[in-house]
Amino acid sequence: DLKATVSVLYWRYHIIIMKRVSMGALRGTIVQVRFCTTAAEKVAIEITRAVATAADDVVKPLDIWNRFGGSLKDRPKTPMVLLLGNHSAGKSTFINNLIGDQVQETGVAPTDDGFTVIMRGDVDADEDGPTLVGTPSHGFQNLSAFGPGLVSHLKLKVRKMNHHTKVPHGLVLVDSPGNIGSPQKGNPNNDRGYDLLKATRWFAERADVILLLFDPANPGTTGETLDVLTHSLADLDHKFLLVMNKVDQFDTVTDFARAYGALCWNLSKVISKKDIPRIYTMCAPNMLVKENSGLPLATFEATRECVVAEALKAPERRVDNLLTALSEASIKTMISAKVTESLRRKYRTTKSQIRAGILLTTVGALSAVATAATWPTIVAGGAATITAAGVAEISARKWLQSYQKTLISGMDQVVKAEIPGADEQDVLARYLSIKPFLVEKLSEKELSCIPRPRNSNRQIQNLDRLIKSEIPRLREKACQVRYNANNA
Questions:
Q1: Rounded to an integer, what distance in angstroms lies between the CA atom of residue 56 and that of residue 130?
Q2: Is the per-residue pLDDT at 219 higher than 70?
Q3: 462's torsion region: left (phi>0), alpha (psi -120 to 50) or beta?
C-alpha cells in the first residue's frame, strides 16, 4: 500500500490531527491529537481563515478574469521550499544534504524530467503524478489544468528521515526539472509536453522560499533559467534567493571572479533594477579545494549555512507570504476592476450616443417620408432611409472597433485618473506587471460585453478597506505574536 502523512489543522477545537492514510483503503489509521496552545499557532490559523474568507468574499467577486486570487486558496496545506535552476546546478545535492540521505539522483547530465515533491513521513512511500494530483489533502489538485504532460512527470516521495535530518515534519521540498538550453521562443511547451514557465509559476506562487541555483561552470545552459527568473518569478522577489553553487570547482580566485562577473552580466540583461540582488556563493558541504587556489572555502560554507537557514524559515514565513499574496492579489484586482469599469463605461456611453443618433435620424427621415403625397414615393423613401440606417450602423461598428483600440491604448491615462497614488512606484510596478494581460483580455471582445460584477461600487469599497485596513491589521497581529515568541 502507498501511505502518506496528512496534517489537518482544525481551528474550532484548537487541535492538530495527524492521520496516516492507506491509499488502498482506510485501514491502519493512526490518529495523534495535541492541543494548539501557542499563540503563534492560533494566530496562524486565524490569519489563514481570514485570507480564505477575503479571497472568497472580497477579491473573487471583482476578479472577473479569475487571474489574481487563485493562489490564495488552492495551495498545499504545509510550508514549501522550491528549488529551481539549470541542470547540474546542484539542486538535488542540496536536497540530499538537507535531508541527510540520498533521496534524489544526482549527476552532471539531467537526472529528472519533472517536478518531485518530497516530504517527511513515518514510512517511505511513493506516489505517481495522477495519485498526487487526485488526492485533495495534498493540495496539488489544480496542477491537473496543465494536462497529462505535466501530471505524468510529477511524483511524490515520502521518506522516513533519520534523526540527523534538518527537514522538520510538515515542510515540503520541491525539486524541479533542470533548465536546459536557450530561452523559449514561440513554443511555450518547449518540447516538454507542458508549459514549463506557467507550471513553475504555479509552484512559485505557493512556495514560501525559492532557491534559484546557477552552475557557473555551464554558462550555456542558463537561458531557460533566465526565462524562469523573468516570467515565473516576476513580483516574487521577496521570497527567492539567487545562488551560485559549486564554487569549489574553480581552480583559482580569478576563475571564480570571471564566472561571478559573467553571471552578474547575464542577470543584468533581465533584471531591470540598477542593483542586482545578492548572489549567494556556496558549495556542497565537506568539499575539497585545490591547494593554493586562494578560494575562501570557509566563507562559502558559512554562506551555505545561511542559505540552509533561509530555506528552513519557510514555516515562519508562511503567514507573511500569505498576507503578501493577498495584498498583491487585492491591489491588482483593484487596478483591473477600476480600469475595466472605466473603459466599459466610456465605451457604452459613446456607443449609446451613436445608436441614439442613428435612431433619431432614421425616425425623423421616416416621418418626413410619410408626409409624401403618393405611396410609391413613400415606399421608395422608406427603403432608402432604412438602407441608409443600415449603412450607418455598419460604419458605426467599424468606428467603435477603432474607438475601442484607442481606449485600450490610453489605459495609462485611465490608471492615473482612477487609481489613487498611481504615480507611486509600488502601484505603478503592479500595474505594469498586469498591463499586457489586461490589454489581451480587453481586446478579446467588445467592451460593452464584458461582465460587470454585481454591486461593483460596494465591492470596490470592500476591497479598498481590505487593502488599507484589514491586511495591515493582520500583519500587525502576526508581527506582535512573532516578536513575543522571539523574546519569550
A1: 28
A2: no
A3: alpha
